[in-house]
Amino acid sequence: MASLALPQLPPARRPWLPIAGAILLALGAVLVAQVGGDRGIPPVASSEDIEVSGIEVDVTGDSPEDARLKGWREAQKLAWERLDGPAIPDSQLEGLVSAIVVEQERLGPRRYIATLGVIFDRARAGGLLGGEGARSRSAPMLTLPVLISGGTQTMFEVRNPWQRAWAETQFGASAIDYVRPSGAGGESLLLTYGQTGRRSRAWWNGILDEFGAADVLIPIANLHYSYPGGPVEGRFTARYGPDSRWLGEFALRVQSPEQVPAMMNTAVQRFDRLFTQALADGKLRPDPTLALGSVQIPPEVRALIEAARRAEEARASAGEVVPSETAAQTPAGTPTPDTPQALGTFTVQVATPDARSFDGALGAVRGAAGVRGVTVSSTAIGGTSVLRVTYLGDIEGLANALRAAGWQVTAGSNALAITR
């Protein structure tokens, strides 16, 4: 009986493999593009020197070099007058100048037209200007410049003139301690316009701890272009704090888009004066609900923050009715006014099935009686997160305080596990 030869079938094809590979490559390219490229602008180093910018000069001379020299000397005089400095000889004035900053210049055969900045050495000029004494500064303030143009809000996603103006301004003589991110790498993903609308102290504490800041400043520039190549109007709004509180606003206008960078520089100076005045008026104070344990701030500022916290605790306790038997009913291990207590740090594990429960747990633990600070050791959304709690008392007192706040507490070896 003859056998029939079966035809050879081609190997099974998997048409989805090339497609899947292309998708993975595309996703990888997108992730790299989100953090790659020249998106960051490193801020200039701040010094204590006195800078006067925007000095316009228009002089003539026997040669281009002679005209430039006369222009620089004229700028020194105008800058000194702007500072209300006393009358001094030109030779002494030149000894006070440490640098000339050329913002714009046009040089002809015998004419020099420029916009200059003059930097005076504070050690030499401070005595004549009455600024030789120590100056108080604000706590470190994370600065997030927001640019709104064409219905789009950007911060560090792409380079823009508003980010550049804040990065390239010299703030050494300012009373505000600006913490200016560069926007490079992962900062463009972390610091976005959406972050300014968050109210969660847990998220803000994580960001402020990363940059070593105590609070946040949000200078907003909203640009409106009348028509291509025409006038540009800028509405500038100052906000601060995790709740984005309004602090002030102003408007500027230029005749063409080419003048927008100069308008931005002017706006930065206006913002600095606005923030400085708010600091002097007592409005610009770090939010007492934020954790400040890792931030190096002046003792007088920290004293104000602690006073605000004590005032909030006093207002909260004023509405509670305390029975006369409180002392007899106080659980063992709970701090009492007659018992001296020491600060201790304990590990607390808490179930966090979602982001809302994580924020709620942080707020509830921070609000428990006797708790002086909470830091996040590990975050596990959908699992168990670990907190480090600083408490005025021992671990038994912390357990009782958490039970009083509505938690079910399981005690372990120098650690607690809490659930609702």
**CATH fold category name of the largest domain:** Rossmann fold
Helical stretch tally: 12
Overall number of structural domains:
3
Shape: elongated
Fraction of residues in helix: 25-40%
Q: How many β-strands, per DSSP?
A: 15
Q: CATH first level of the largest domain: which class? A: Alpha Beta
Which features would summarize this protein structure in a list?
420 residues, alpha/beta, Dodecin subunit-like, Rossmann fold, Alpha-Beta Plaits, 3 domains, seven-stranded mixed β-sheet, five-stranded mixed β-sheet, 12 helices, 26% strand, elongated
Kindly describe this structure.
The chain has 420 residues and is of the alpha/beta class. It has three domains: 50-129, Dodecin subunit-like; 141-280, 3-Layer(aba) Sandwich (Rossmann fold), CATH 3.40.50; 339-419, 2-Layer Sandwich (Alpha-Beta Plaits), CATH 3.30.70. It has twelve helices and 15 strands. It has helices at residues 16-35, 64-82, 90-96, 122-129, 161-167, 187-190, 201-211, 260-280, 299-318, 326-329, 355-366, 395-404; strands at 50-60, 97-107, 111-120, 141-143, 146-149, 152-154, 178-179, 215-225, 232-240, 245-254, 343-352, 371-378, 383-392, 408-411, 415-419. Strands 4, 5, 6, 7, 8, 9 and 10 form a seven-stranded mixed β-sheet that branches. Strand 9 (232-240) and strand 10 (245-254) form a beta hairpin. Helix 5 (161-167) crosses helix 8. Mean pLDDT is 78; it is low at 29-33 and 320-339.
